[in-house]
Design a protein that fits this description.
Layout: E1 8-13, H1 36-48, E2 53-56, H2 67-70, H3 81-88, E3 96-102, H4 108-122, E4 126-131, H5 136-139, H6 150-168, E5 176-179, E6 184-186, E7 196-197, E8 202-203, E9 218-221, H7 226-235, E10 238-241, H8 246-259, E11 271-280, H9 284-295, H10 300-311, H11 335-347, H12 351-358, E12 365-369, H13 371-383, E13 389-393, H14 399-414, H15 427-431
Parallel strand pairs: 1-2, 1-13, 2-3, 3-4, 4-9, 9-10, 10-11, 11-12, 11-13
Antiparallel strand pairs: 5-6, 7-8
């Protein structure tokens, strides 16, 4: 390997694949999201491809389509991500295990225990994708009629992350003695309370799980709004994002990293990894033919429902071959709504063309082509400062993941921009991220510590 920057790769898990009609493809696992054995095969394929991590998104409610439209979609039932990744940990050796958990409907102490336990079981390969949740339907499952206001959600998220990180420092690395002769199981000076009292949480501590092999789980974040960018600059170590052009990706990259010094952080300690939908085949024409076959499987009512969800505007009843209406953005719509609206206006897309555009990745960049085509794009984004890597979005499983590993990975390696072996055993080692020191310090005087 030479001194070139190295791509980081995530494999984005989604039941039955990411394309809205992916489960209908003749080669697809329609039941992939419900069959643990298939998840094991996906994990091992990604590890064979030397991916840094598997990333499992999550939501605490089902899709918000009408009953008939919902019956055509696959994202309605799946294995809970923390349970899934914990079960996958002993089935893998190197790949990171990252899952989503919301700061709006979880509690820091119980969530810190679960992630710390995943850390120990996996040998230091856990990551937490921090989200604040995005819709009222989740609120209805937790005794609330409406979602918390955005500003309040982000204040809660900042405090939540800080409490989690404090709890993960409850034990020093060398706290446990296991000294049978003296009868001393641990050093009491190396156990710490957090004693946190804030706007949203009161947490005494300490955590009942030891400090992890990589110090703390990796913090992942995906917000693209002003609040999301600032939260990423302050707390995130990996950012997943969505961009339709390399120009907007570069703007985002330099904006978020440019905020980090003011937060006392090194910009190199954050990896920005946009989502990238990939359909690859030995030739460009073959890839395009496969992609069109998949696009033709989308029922129009499902495509319209999908687009309505992501553009935050009800498009039912409109001509699918007519223009996308101008959607107002002054009503608290999600960032992706503006992205899609701007893309439709700039390219003159119809409703059908726009829902086909997002069918495979829900607003993430989509590339269809040969291994060289895919590698050219990934290299350009890497070397021109648009990305540190990508979260790979497979239209369906398992064959599109197999194709990426078998065709694209060797091309990236030939160019010297992708590893040929894992650098270490922990997620941080493979991502090139530092191991965070304990806030209590390994050499601090015991009398100055808050010990229990």
């Amino acid at each position: 390997m030479d001194a070139k920057r190295q791509l980081k790769l995530g494999m984005f898990l989604r039941p039955a694949g990411h394309h809205i009609a992916g489960w209908r493809h003749p080669d697809a696992w329609a039941d992939g999201g419900l069959d643990f054995a298939k998840y094991v095969e996906m994990a091992r394929t990604a590890e064979r491809g030397l991916f840094d991590m598997m990333f499992s998104a999550d939501t605490l409610s089902g899709e918000r389509y009408d009953r008939e439209t919902l019956s055509h979609t696959s994202y309605v039932a799946w294995i809970e991500p923390m349970s899934l990744l914990t079960a996958l940990a002993p089935m893998t050796r190197h790949i990171g295990l990252v899952c989503t958990a919301t700061t709006t409907y979880e509690e820091p102490y119980t969530l810190a225990r679960r992630f710390a336990s995943l850390e120990l079981i996996s040998g230091g390969r856990a990551g937490w994708n921090v989200v604040t949740s995005a819709n009222d339907s989740e609120a209805l499952n937790f005794g609330r009629k409406t979602h918390l206001p955005k500003a309040e959600r982000y204040r809660r998220a900042r405090e939540f992350v800080g409490v989690m990180q404090g709890l993960w420092d409850s034990w020093d690395d060398d706290a446990f003695r296991f000294d049978k002769a003296s009868g001393r199981f641990y050093d009491p000076d190396k156990r710490h309370r957090i004693d946190h009292e804030g706007e949203f949480f009161k947490v005494h501590g300490p955590l009942t799980v030891p400090r992890s092999p990589q110090g703390q789980p990796v913090i992942v974040q995906a917000g693209a709004s002003e609040d999301g960018r600032q939260l990423a600059a302050e707390t995130a170590e990996v950012v997943f994002c969505a961009h339709q052009t390399i120009e907007t990706a570069r703007d985002f990259y330099y904006d978020v990293k440019g905020r980090m010094p003011a937060a006392g952080r090194n910009p190199d300690h954050l990896k920005i990894m946009p989502g990238l939908g990939v359909m690859v085949a030995p030739t460009r024409q073959e890839a395009q033919d496969r992609w069109q076959q998949l696009q033709d499987l989308i029922p129009p009512e499902v495509g319209v429902a999908l687009l309505s969800k992501y553009i935050a505007w009800d498009l039912r009843g409109l001509d699918v071959d007519g223009p996308v209406p101008v959607v107002p953005q002054d009503r608290g719509a999600p960032t992706r709504s503006a992205l899609l609206s701007e893309t439709a206006r700039a390219e003159g897309l119809t409703i059908r063309q726009l829902y086909q555009r997002i069918a495979g990745g829900r607003g993430h960049f989509q590339v269809v082509g040969s291994p060289r085509d895919i590698a050219d794009l990934m290299e350009e984004w890497l070397v021109t400062g648009a990305a540190d890597g990508f979260n790979i979005i497979c239209p369906y499983f398992p064959s599109t993941l197999d194709a990426f590993v078998d065709l694209v990975v060797p091309e990236l390696q030939r160019r010297g921009i992708y590893r040929t072996t894992y650098e270490g055993r922990t997620l941080r080692e493979n991502l090139g991220l530092p191991r965070p020191p304990s806030r209590y310090g390994a050499s601090r005087d015991a009398g100055a510590r808050k010990a229990v």
